[in-house]
């Protein structure tokens, strides 16, 4: 009975690990943008929110290219908190 219980526990652990690996594989790799990066943007999926500060902040954009592949890039953007007055 103990060996059956141990076998069931190992099987459940294996399924949980496989599910975790599949979840990690489904998340896109974040690429670092620089000015030499060629972007093939067919559709923007999401943009991170730019905070209301007057400084350069990290930002991300997720987009789909013309082949239907999803990409996420990280870049730096000026915050929305600067004023001209």
Explain this structure.
This protein is of the alpha+beta class and 85 residues long. It has one helix spanning 2-26, and strands at 30-32, 43-47, 56-64, 70-78. It has a single domain, classed as Protein of unknown function DUF2790 (Spermidine Synthase, Chain: A, domain 2, Roll), CATH 2.30.140. The longest helix is centred in the first third of the chain and has 25 residues, at 2-26. The mean pLDDT is 82. This is DUF2790 domain-containing protein. It comes from Pseudomonas wadenswilerensis. Pfam families: DUF2790.
Coarse structural class: alpha+beta
Strand order of the largest sheet: 1-4-3-2
CATH topology: Spermidine Synthase, Chain: A, domain 2
Quaternary class: single chain
End-to-end distance? 77 Å
What is Rg?
A: 21 Å
**Helix content bin:** 25-40%
Q: Specify the number of helices.
A: 1
| CATH-defined superfamily | Protein of unknown function DUF2790
CATH architecture: Roll
Indicate the CATH class: Mainly Beta
Give start-end ranges of low-pLDDT stretches.
Answer: none
Keywords: Signal
Organism: Pseudomonas wadenswilerensis
Protein name: DUF2790 domain-containing protein
Pfam families: DUF2790 (PF10976)
């Amino acid at each position: 009975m103990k060996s059956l219980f141990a076998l069931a526990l190992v099987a459940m652990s294996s399924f949980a690990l496989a599910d975790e690996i599949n979840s990690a594989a489904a998340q896109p790799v974040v690429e670092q943008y620089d000015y030499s990066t060629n972007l093939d943007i067919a559709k923007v999926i999401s943009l991170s929110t730019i905070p209301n500060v007057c400084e350069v902040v990290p930002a991300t954009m997720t987009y789909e290219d013309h082949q239907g592949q999803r990409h996420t890039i990280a870049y730096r953007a000026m915050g929305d908190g600067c004023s001209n007055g």
